[in-house]
Amino acid sequence: MPTNFTVVPVEARADGGQDEAAEAAEATEGTEGTEETEGTEAPGPPEGEPDCQSPGDGNPRENSPFINHTEVEQENFFEGKNMALFEEEMDSNPMVSSLLNKLANYTNLSQGVVEHEEHEEDSKRREVKSPRMGTFIGVYLPCLQNILGVILFLRLTWIVGAAGVLESFLIVSMCCTCTMLTAISMSAIATNGVVPAGGSYYMISRSLGPEFGGAVGLCFYLGTTFAGAMYILGTIEIFLTYISPSAAIIQAETAEGEAAAMLHNMRVYGTCTLVLMAMVVFVGVKYVNKLALVFLACVVLSILAIYAGVVKTAFDPPDIPVCLLGNRTLSRRGFDVCAKFHTANNSTTPTALWGLFCNSSMPSATCDEYFAQNNVTEIQGIPGVASGVLLDNLWSAYADKGAFVERKGTPSVPVPEESRAGGLPYVLTDIMTYFTMLVGIYFPSVTGIMAGSNRSGDLRDAQKSIPTGTILAIVTTSFIYLSCIVLFGACIEGVILRDKFGEALQGKLVIGMLAWPSPWVIVIGSFFSTCGAGLQSLTGAPRLLQAIARDGIIPFLQVFGHGKANGEPTWALLLTALICETGILIASLDSVAPILSMFFLMCYMFVNLACAVQTLLRTPNWRPRFRYYHWALSFLGMSLCLALMFVCSWYYALVAMLIAGCIYKYIEYRGAEKEWGDGIRGLSLNAARYALLRVEHGPPHTKNWRPQVLVMLNLDEEQRVKHPRLLSLTTQLKAGKGLTIVGAVLEGTYLDKHVEAQRAEENIRSLMGVEKTKGFCQLVVSSNLRDGMSHLIQSAGLGGMKHNTVLMAWPESWKQEDNTFSWKNFVETVRDTTAAQQALLVAKNVDLFPQNQERFGDGDIDVWWVVHDGGLLMLLPFLLRQHKVWRKCRMRIFTVAQVDDNSIQMKKDLQVFLYHLRISAEVEVVEMVENDISAFTYEKTLMMEQRSQMLKQMQLSKTEREREAQLIHDRNTASHSVVATRTQAPSTPDKVQMTWTKEKLIAEKYKNKEPGVSGFKDLFSLKPEWGNLNQSNVRRMHTAVKLNGVVLSRSRGAQLVLLNMPGPPRNRQGDENYMEFLEVLTEGLNRVLLVRGSGREVVTIYS
């Protein structure tokens, strides 16, 4: 007989192990008929093997409630030899038979309230009872109870009276259609796999990702919290208006102050009720849960009483007189007899109504003009369903604030310029009414469709019950609302419908007067149902906040994930009560309702979006059991939600979207990274694939060119980055734009080094986060560094998103004897970038470069433009100055004039060129003349060649060393004879002049021409070895020395120097000399960026 497991999802560790809690949670329970005894341990490992779990492939597994590993399982795995071929994989991958066994016995623990009720202080595990709730009890009734609520009892008659039957029908139809489409989308998501308790937050976050999930989850939390405030306000309104008006603490001194006094009373009683409810929730949620059936019974009985009252009006309408003065409705609070005079015993005496409108009770008294010219009539407030009053109530009767509630078709004598003085017993409208405002007030009455999905952990078959129960509940409640609209319009007089607080009925609830057998059925029923709804909101909202906090996606909310020892969300309840108090301080039910409408509509909008995205992406995991969905329905539902948000209140909608947007960006910026396989990630992948296919064809236009950088990092022995400032420079250069690939090479084989590679990649990613470098990390394990760097240059990137620029640090230790090959790797990398037609940036003294937090208040960025190789030298300073570090630095451009150049014209041309490029910079032309090669140059060249020969000899055998020495001697002798026959020294820059003139040019030529040969002989007599030097190396060294001197004279104090990087020699035997030339060229400069362009133009003067 199979063993029953209680499987608890746990986070798998990277080493394949699991914590003690997970092992304890997987204790077998209820084992019957098995031969194994409890506590059987798995056999230890064979001798010679370490006593530890194999790490598998080293990758953390995805969380799954079905794939967990215990010692007992491993014992079963290794019992037979039939599967010996797979035994090395069995520590990380379970056998199919074991997996199917767990699937068959999987029990979805009921979460939330039930968990806390069953908690025991000793934390002993109980035997888990399989949930028994079906569709009717588990989904249908909770949805019915949540949907039917305070708006139905307190505001629906008023909405019908103001908007008319037709427009009210439209309002209800729109809102019910919105929730029906959302329910269809929700059913598809809820039946796509096992949905733990968590409702809409869980569904949205796992479908749309942590950013959307957190934003919409918090909006849903705020909506639920404000719903609690609305229910509490509804409870207090029923109590103070219809049950016990005398309980008001604050009394109004004048009629005008009654509304303000009512709001103050609502605040006082609402706060007290909130504290009481919060204490009930804090003490024990089980009491709220047990009372849920009572609250549900109140709702059902109240609705049945309404229908019974409607049926009764067909043959026996109730006698409910309403007093009218002209066509204006009068409030019945200050008089009993609806007449101006009372006749008794053949005498006529003024009534109490006369005294309200006149200055005395005498017939000759001065009365209100409208009262004097219009008659007092009495009509039936509820004439019955057969009276034909429906035709009068079909059309809307919107009014401004303070307007009279008037009956259509009743004769009235208008009075010019009447002052609406207080104290007269008229029924007045308390707020301005219009269509969109009524939509916002009504919409909360259709919310509550998530009640079934919130209880998914308690259902016998959630994937069947949630769609069926939710859709049936929406159909039922939609029928109730639509039929009530028609029946209210057909039974009740229009002036009574528009009388929000029943003032014409002596302060009685309008819908209660319609009910049978007694108005108190509705009053008491609505009181308890709204009270229960408030309690349930205060129970559900803290748990929703606790679920969001425990997900860890919003760091500052983590404190609300903690609670009492049994898991009760104490801190979350406190925050919920504080937010709820803000809604109570608003005090007006009509003002709070649109606020929570916004939050619920936004939540429903994203449920529809989640379903539409998953359907359109056709992800392999999207296989809902509920088949009656379509992306067009989800899209229609999403559009309807968005439209209703702006219909209700455009400014509330903008505020709600701003709140959600801020939370989204905060989670994106600071939140923990979660991978939930969400649809937005799939959408991003599809969009990325589409974009990559679009940019595949051909190189970008010059106007679109920007450095797409491959950053080559060096790692130390502990896989840490040697030069973090290289990433700082990357961030300053890129500012988050374009492509950045951070590459590194690990020496070895991948099978041996994959753990080190993961560690190195984590180190690089964390450093990228610290330096705010937005890009991708690509680490290569190669047999040697040289091949690894070549592989990166060739293969990094994808499709059209490939790098065009390589950024690397200068190998500072290239001269050290223990690092003889660093310069070879460097020079070969330079050759690789040239062959790949990629630009190369080499940062020398990279550890002196500024961090992202530093700011240069002043200084220069100097560009030494010796060779034009595409304009990258011009573009780099411009890009750097976009960043805060370099923003206040000036840009200076130096260019070198040869002997035959017109330096004045060069300067003008360069200024015009920069003007057309829209780059502001100072321009200077540096002129250089020919002169003899100095002794310093010869000495530097001699030291360089001696060192290079020594490096070669370290790698040669004895016979090879002798042959190499003979070759060097022959070559030096031949080169000496060639140099001796030369008539003049090679052209090298030395002197700096402002302008060239013809006379200066001739004088310099003659001055340098005469002592040519004798000068050489004098130098060689000083040190005969100089005559054996390779004259090509001498010339290169001469250029490096002289150019370095010129650069130092102008740019020694510059914050950054950008310099053309000369290419490596074509003859590979001179590579070590090339490094020496670059070292001499940049000697004495603090921060240098050597730039070698790709040859293609990267700047243009055209728009």
UniProtKB/TrEMBL annotation:
This is Solute carrier family 12 member 7. Residues 1-66 are annotated as: Disordered. The chain crosses the membrane at residues 133-156, 168-191, 212-233, 268-285, 292-310, 431-451, 471-497, 509-535, 571-589, 595-617, 629-653. It comes from the Eukaryota. InterPro entries: AA-permease/SLC12A_dom (IPR004841), KCL_cotranspt (IPR000076), SLC12_C (IPR018491), SLC12A_fam (IPR004842). Keywords: Cell membrane, Chloride, Glycoprotein, Ion transport, Membrane, Phosphoprotein, Potassium, Potassium transport, Symport, Transmembrane, Transmembrane helix, Transport. Belongs to the SLC12A transporter family. K/Cl co-transporter subfamily. It is found in: Cell membrane. GO terms for molecular function: potassium:chloride symporter activity. GO terms for biological process: cell volume homeostasis; chemical synaptic transmission; chloride ion homeostasis; potassium ion homeostasis; potassium ion import across plasma membrane. It catalyses: K(+)(in) + chloride(in) = K(+)(out) + chloride(out). It is a multi-pass membrane protein. The gene is SLC12A7.
